[in-house]
Amino acid sequence: MKNSYVYLGFAFTSLLTSCISEVDFPVSDKPIEEIMIDGDFTDQEGPHRLFLNYAAPFGVSRFKSVENAAVWLVDDTEARAQYLPVKVNSDTFYYELPRNSAMQGIAGRSYHVEITLPDGRIYKSVPQVLPQRVNADSIVLEGSVTTRVSTADVVIEERNAIVSVESVIPAGTEPFYLRWDAHSVFYFQELVKFGPFDKQHECFIPDLFNQQRVVTQEIAQKNGQKIRVEIGKKLIDYSFENSLYFNVIQRSINKETFDYWNLIAKVANPQGTVFDTPPASIRGNIFNEANPKEIPLGYFEVAAVDTIRRKVFNGVMGEPYFVLPYCSYANPWGNGPANHDECLNCIILKNSTYTKPHYWID
């Protein structure tokens, strides 16, 4: 089964490096008003979201949303569509281009954003041409068994599902640049309760199993050939006991975006020694015309998107990967580690919701 939708709101992560010896950095008491922008526009119907925050001062982990900004999407004909603020809670919100916006993503056209802050600063993204879409064909799952030794010198066997995507590359002389996001959503059912007012709930729990990986690839002149790319791996645990959906989002991007994400990958997964030069801030495609020396954080991505899904059931990769029941009436707190309260109240699982995904088929 194959569906297309926009998987929006990709994460922007700040990383700190550590050194062998202690180093003191001078810290100013003056608030830092660096801007952070994280958003995209695609050939899908949306909604398209843009996250606009002030970078947090040193020692503060929480970002501050920028209120009362004017955010516009502009195409190569100077047509404009405005992003509207959407409130999450009392102090957190994002900006969203509604589904009914007249602006549509068309391959070969270019798009950028223009942002005016309440203090008058104006930021723009570098215009990007929306590429030709490369459609994803199928999700491939392969089982893998590995062993490791714990700190208590106990040999632990881990079973994983290796997740790959297969795609057919269109004919053409120009290279294609692809990036993949992936996540899963699994189904968790509480034990039946026998009280007259008790209800057995069903929960749906998303898992960003490859969130620390940046998967990109440059592909040249395949002319209808099929490629297979490994996206990540997911530990085979109780999330495989019932039904589970894998969702893979394939993004056709341009060369500049491809280079940006490869730099992000190097920072997220550094290779080398402690004596290498520490990574500097990565420059995105956002700029301030009035202050060219300023380096705003983040990136605005223009992409053609295709998403495929695969629903799997317990033991789909064979008997070695079959998962035993997680909850039982003999032990209503689960047959694994003690005190699995989620067997009686699944909403306490991280990111759990009672709302079934729109694509879920029982």
Order of helices and strands: EEEEEEEEEEEEEEEEHEE
Q: What's the N-to-C terminus distance?
A: 13 Å
Main sheet attributes: strand count, strand direction, barrel closure: 15 strands, mixed
Q: Would you identify the regions where 5 or more consecutive residues have pLDDT less than 50?
A: 1-32
Q: Got a strand count?
A: 18
Taking all Cα atoms into account, the compactness measure Rg is: 23 Å
The tally of helices reads 1
Query: What is the helical fraction, as a range of percent?
Result: under 10%
Identify the overall geometry: globular
Class based on secondary structure composition and strand pairing: mainly beta
> What fraction of residues sit in β-strands?
35-45%
Q: Mean pLDDT, nearest integer?
A: 83
